[in-house]
Amino acid sequence: MSALLLGEVDEGRARLRAYINATIGFDALSKALGRPPKSLLRMFGPSGNSTAENLLGVINVLQAETGVQLEVRVAAAE
Asked: pTM of the full predicted structure?
């Protein structure tokens, strides 16, 4: 998520794809979201372009399925 927030979109997608593969997998994510697995794989591929709605939906499912909750904090710039 840090990479995405820092504007490193390609790196953020790659890390999120790896996290999905390492945790619930794309088949389970597909079932939870009601979207085809290939669509989700493309979304997080090198030329993927997910909408905010799709990205937040994925994050919501990952949080529910893994028990890991994301928290956003305000921090001073370095």
From this structure: 0.86
